[in-house]
Amino acid sequence: MCPNWSERKMDVSSLGGLSAALSPVQVKDAANTLVFKKALDIQAQNAAQLLEALPQVSSNPPNLGNSVDIKA
User: Fold this and answer.
1) What are the sequence ranges of the domains in the chain?
2) Predicted structure pTM score
3) Contacts of the segment 16-23: beta carbons below 8 A, 24+ positions apart
């Protein structure tokens, strides 16, 4: 199950120090980059959860999948 969105928090404290040294455009770019990285992290977590939810594949008998019959 996905955690509640309220539990997901992004640390934006690093933007405070940047805002004094950077122009508004650079601050906006830095904020956009942080949001993008967080979105990528969330997508990676969701993909991992989906992969874990897949059922395990049972093995085929040893005589299946060893040859291909080709007849025209």
Assistant:
1) 22-54
2) 0.49
3) none
Read off the pLDDT band of 20 (50, 70, 90).
low
The C-alpha atoms of residue 67 and residue 50 are separated, in whole angstroms, by 33
Any idea of the CA torsion for 54, 57, 58, 59, to the nearest 10 degrees? -160
Q: What percent of the chain has pLDDT over 90?
A: 35
DSSP per-residue codes, 1-17: -PPPGGG-----THHHH
pLDDT score recorded for residue 6:
53
Helices (H), the chain: 14-21, 24-53
CB 18 within 8 A of CB 33: no
User: Cα-atom radius of gyration of the chain, to the nearest Å?
Assistant: 24
**Tokens of residue 53, six digits:** 């939810």
Provide the token pair at 52: 């874990």
